[in-house]
Amino acid sequence: MKNIVYILSLVGCMGLASSCQTDADFDYSLPENPVMAPLRGISGIDGDGQSIIGTVDQTTKTAQISFNSLPDLTQVMLKIDIPQRAELVYPESDSLMMDLSQPVGIIVRANGEDITYTLNASLAEYREFSTANVKQFKLDNDAQKPWPDANIGFQYMFDGLWMETPADYGAINYLNFQFQANEASIAAGDNTAAITFDVGEEVYLRQVKTHAYWFNTMYQVTKYEVWGYCKEGEPAKDGNWDDWTKLGEFDYEQAPTVFAEGDDVIFDKETIQKARYYRIRCTENWRAAFEPTLPNLNVYAFAEIRLWVYNKR
Hints:
This protein is mostly beta strands.
């Protein structure tokens, strides 16, 4: 009897050994703690210094990031986020300046293989242009200051302050720019007055937005034109209008003002010409339009001027 039990035990062990050997031919194991997301994230710095967070699709191995205010995509500060158990193969640094004007391959080594993600970057069609460095470029036939007042100055049109509601002058510390037709224009009975400014670089202007100081009274600008110097070099100091190109115009009666939104002139992307120097030529104020018997029909005022430009075409 003991012999029979021994033989059965021996047979069972042999069968178990045979089964184990069969299973050993197949490797069903996974890497220990596999890296599920080799490229964990992507981010970049926009033109205004803000951080932009991109998206990563682990299924298609693609990444996407969209910028709003960069002039172009040729020099983008990029940050690549990978897990500790992965290795960045390309680029060599996880924080660097990259040209993203074309799709870029990001290669990460994880789970024993090199994995390539395709990074695509995009840029908004246009952006608000920083006016921090805009300067007056006064020409001989530009407007004059109508009266001395410490709260009136060209620089206050580009200080980033405007009112959300009419007559809330304290919100902008009563700062604005008021200007008047020059002596030659006054002598000729011409009420128009122009201001000229240098934006510091050549741009394709997309939009001019003016915020009023006065609303439905006084020296609110009801009609104005936008001109650009679309030639090489600097414009002549005499301000000859033959050297300038009219780009667009605003008419209060055709586009009634919603005060907080300001007054807009928008330019077509396909036809706008590149320029660095611009002029706003005011042709009518509120009094001239609706109260012509009152004085100072040739005085104009803005609280703020804002600019948008098309990104690289």
